[in-house]
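REQUEST FORM: STRUCTURE PREDICTION
Request ID: SP-0412
Submitted by: Lab K.M.
Chain count: 1
Length (residues): 81
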Amino acid sequence: MPDGLEKEMAKARGEMRRLQVAVDLACAAIRSGTYTRAECEEFIEAAREWAKKLCPDRLDLFEMIYARRMRRLIEEYARKQ
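STATUS: Completed
RESULT:
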């Protein structure tokens, strides 16, 4: 595999890993039950913005996987306002 392609793939893996860590942290915060629905929605928006910066061509995957996951957690754990 050419060096350039290898570096691109490593960079993409690193970006996806950073996004995954950010989403995992947001999910942990939501599961804590200390945030309102509105505050939890801000976590989704912040993660979405992070995803746009890191991998704008894969935003559909963010919506399909991460945003849905966080919305399910909000339904279960968000503090009532």
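NOTES: The radius of gyration is 15 Å.
Reviewed by: T.R.
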